[in-house]
Amino acid sequence: MRILVSGATGFVGSTITRHLLAAGHTVRAMSRSAAQARVVLAAAEQGRAALADGRLEFSEADVTEAATLVEAVKEVEAVIQAAQFTGAPVEDPKRGLTYMDVDCKGTMNLLAAVAEVYETPTAGPAMSRYPEGAPHFLYVSGVSVSADGREPWDRAKWRAEEAIRGSGLDWTIVRGCWAYGAQDAALNRIIGYSDRLPFVPVFGAGQDKLTPVFVEDIGRLFVLVVENPARAADTTFVLGGPDVVTLNEFLGLALKAMGRRRPVLHIPKALGKFQGALLQHMPGRPLSPDAVDFVSQGGAATEADRQLLAERFPGFRATSLQDGLESYLRPLP
Ligand SMILES: NC(=O)c1ccc[n+]([C@@H]2O[C@H](COP(=O)([O-])OP(=O)(O)OC[C@H]3O[C@@H](n4cnc5c(N)ncnc54)[C@H](OP(=O)(O)O)[C@@H]3O)[C@@H](O)[C@H]2O)c1
């Protein structure tokens, strides 16, 4: 199959791309810079092999510029939307780097490009389905997204989800829990503080429940969804790992895998937000008050979420935290 991956250079999108290539599919990797995408994806063995045999294509496009997307969506059997704004979770409204501009409107632009290229279904509240041949639309959403979500990311992603559900395409939404892996920017940053500090800092008490998911599991699930559309069509899944932990426990396990012991220093969220209010005006916007909320939020898959996945994909098993962490974190000599 030929699959368009939007956000193919990102943490989640590049992992999905790698797994699709390993499964023998052709990926059209979308990025704002095809040259950069080539470098990023050729860093993995699967990318190099697919470049050599012509299964890795590039599409230079920007989800905020609708006209650039039309070529990207032509002649694909699936579209996977895994793009999010640069600098997330610190928004920069003046530069259009927000959940609403990129995650939400970008998704709507992709849907509009599909509508332009494939036969548009009858408009109206009960849109008719697209004819056969239109791509299956898959979206990487977040665990906290819901109709009554109040945070900017929840509102934007809910609207994106609703646009997908009402598009008339076959769709699948996977709401991912906190994803970790060798290339992640969140867990690695926190535990990275242990290189130079006798503690690791976190905002808040770190007591909310999480079911962190190994990013390779996201890649594996997307391959299953793409290859078995009937089992996943018009379904919203929540994908978490099998272990329910607090952030404090998650950090403890990650540090243990690195052979380190460090206490967690809890920075009150109010203090973090005060820092964020100042730092959001500094070059590079290292922090904002909303970002403090984002990084300290909980989010766990439920038993019902696990059951739905098990029913549709009985062979799929999410990786335990210990196995996931130990696959790439090693005790340093
Ligand atoms: N990371 C997690 O823990 C996690 C958990 C659950 C859900 N998710 C969801 O997974 C998705 C991807 O997250 P991530 O962590 O992989 O993000 P990421 O590493 O920051 O990657 C973002 C991707 O978006 C692309 N992008 C940014 N702006 C774009 C634009 N205007 N047009 C086209 N592409 C654009 C970037 O490509 P270029 O720079 O090459 O253009 C990059 O490939 C997000 O929707 C996120 O909410 C992530």
Protein described:
- The protein is built from 13 helices and 13 strands.
- The protein is α/β, with parallel strands linked by helices and 333 residues long.
- The chain has helices at 11-22, 34-42, 45-52, 99-117, 152-165, 187-192, 215-227, 229-232, 247-257, 269-279, 289-296, 303-312, 321-326; strands spanning 2-6, 26-31, 56-60, 78-81, 136-142, 171-176, 179-180, 200-203, 209-210, 213-214, 235-239, 245-246, 264-267.
- The protein is globular and about 60 Å long.
- The chain has a domain at 180-214 and 240-301 and 318-333: UDP-galactose 4-epimerase, domain 1.
- The mean pLDDT is 95.
- Bound molecules: NADP nicotinamide-adenine-dinucleotide phosphate (NAP).
- NADP nicotinamide-adenine-dinucleotide phosphate binds next to helix 1, helix 2, helix 4 and strand 5.
Topology:
Elements (H helix, E strand, L loop, with lengths): L1 E5 L4 H12 L3 E6 L2 H9 L2 H8 L3 E5 L17 E4 L17 H19 L18 E7 L9 H14 L5 E6 L2 E2 L6 H6 L7 E4 L5 E2 L2 E2 H13 L1 H4 L2 E5 L5 E2 H11 L6 E4 L1 H11 L9 H8 L6 H10 L8 H6 L7
Parallel strand pairs: 1-2, 1-4, 2-3, 4-5, 5-6, 6-11, 7-10, 8-13
Antiparallel strand pairs: 9-12
Helix pairs in contact: 1-7, 4-5, 10-11
Bound molecules: NADP nicotinamide-adenine-dinucleotide phosphate.
NADP nicotinamide-adenine-dinucleotide phosphate binds next to α1, α2, α4 and β5.
Which short descriptors sum up this protein?
333 residues; single chain; binds NADP nicotinamide-adenine-dinucleotide phosphate; UDP-galactose 4-epimerase, domain 1; alpha/beta
